[in-house]
Amino acid sequence: MISFQNVSKVYNGNSVALEDITFEIRPGEFACIVGKSGAGKSTVIRLLIGEAKPTRGRIHFGQYEVNKLKDYDLPLFRRHIGVIFQDFRLLPNKNSYENVAFALEVAGRPQKEIEDLTPQVLDMVGLSDKTFNFPHELSGGEKQRVAIARAMVHRPEVIIADEPTGNLDPFHTWEIINLLKKIHQLGTTILLATHDKEIINAIEKRVITLDHGRLIRDEEKGKYILV
Amino acid sequence: MFTVISRLVHYGLKDFWRHGWLSVTTVIIMTLALLVSIGLIIFNVVTKQTVASIQDKIDISVYFKNNAPEDEIFSIKKSLENLSEVKTVQYLSSDEALEIFKENHKNDPTITQALGELNENPLQASLNIKANHPEQYASIAQYLSSPNLNTFIDEVSYQENHVVIERLTAMINGLNQAGLFLTIVMALVAGLVAFNTVRLAIYSNREEIGVMRVVGASNSFVRGPFVLQGIFAGVLAAIASVLISAILIMIGFALPSLKFSLSLLGLTGTYQFFFSNIFVLFGYQMLFGTLIGGFSSFIAVRRYLKN
User: Fold this and answer.
1) With contacts defined as CB-CB under 8 Å, which chain B residues touch A150?
2) Residue A208 in contact with residue A215, Cβ under 8 Å?
3) B303 touches chain A (CB under 8 A)
4) Any chain B CB within 8 A of the CB of A12?
5) Is A49 on the interface with B (CB under 8 A)?
6) Which residues of chain B are in CATH 3.30.70.3040 domains?
7) ipTM
8) Was domain B66-151 assigned CATH 3.30.70.3040?
9) pLDDT by position in tens, chain A (length 227)
10) Do B207 and A89 touch (CB under 8 A)?
């Protein structure tokens, strides 16, 4: 479903972010990308959602060859993915309902469907009572739950989470991880980038370890092992 | 298609309202820019009126010898009228000139008595010529000095007046050029101020644009509400600028002291011009406001639509 083939990324001609990375993620998998800060986790995600182009190598997502997508192809491609970020990236002038509905509206879904789906998903992430609150009225955990609702409402094939718990306390961290596990059980492929050792060791999923831009380990039911 | 457009309009209006102070300041700055634009329109009209009234006061007269036959004068009048430089030619017979002279001096017994003592009419028949442009009087005067016309012509007033005419011509040209220069500079300033205000407003939303792109919004879906917000700001600024101008002009012409200063500056035509053309002016303001608002947003958003 997702494949990186000999992918390298060099910023400004001399800063090597990724070096000859090759891996594949199968449909329905829950894969974690781990590594210290600067290991290249975020670069993998930026390349995968088309925010940056690889210097060398090929990236496939379903029928798309992501490294060859033009600017005007990106919106349509991104509707197959749901993305969650460490800094939530909610639209500050829209309330929870509107933030979630936005992902359906950009895809041109009918109003009726939006009105049915949005409350259902907000209910699933436990935010029915915060439907009309704006992001500045929500806690960190609540903001991230709105972001998850937005990422999953259009039923994407893959949800990519880039350090989704980086700004959260331990309680809310587990709340978010459990939500991701629940979404995975419903059949969605999950790609989780994190440097949180506890999470990796607890969830016992596939672990792809990056170090200084290189893939140093790829294990099913892996552990967080970094020197 | 209809769903998309209605969503864009819905978001445009909602975001405009929710951006609160940002929208208010944008409208205020755009209103100031549009006030400059309406000021420039009025300034140009008033300058044109002033120039036209000065221009209208310039003319030259051709005085004919007393023995010049009237049909010769008429043929000269006809030949003058055929010149492209000439706007109007008015014939004044010696009898008519005398009548006007008498009328003008009826209260002056010395002149009336002196005229009575003369046996014949001392005043000459004349043609009063107005040119299309003040620069053209020299060439008309030159035409009149040709030998075949000279036989009947006694005097052309251009010789005595040409210094004044040239000075007035230079003044009119100067006024026109200064007006044009001022208009271009001020319009540019107003346009740039409005443009940059909208750009700054969008700069503060640049992260939002990035988020919309990541969620899968197409360029037009991101751009639409911003362009609409620019247009809304333009519409509101157009309404505000016309209302403020109307109030200022009404106050200006209601206060006696201000009214006097305005008349000294030759601005008395402003009131009449503004209120008889208020809808046309409003149309111009709407056009300028919506164009600059929409265009600035379009350009500003484009910058953040990469990736």
Assistant:
1) 215
2) yes
3) no
4) no
5) yes
6) 66-151
7) 0.84
8) yes
9) 899 999 999 998 888 899 999 999 999 999 999 988 888 899 999 999 998 999 999 999 988 999 999 888 898 999 999 999 989 999 998 999 999 999 999 888 889 999 999 999 999 888 999 999 999 999 988 999 999 999 999 989 999 999 998 888 888 889 889 989 999 998 999 999 998 888 888 888 999 999 989 999 888 877 777 65
10) yes
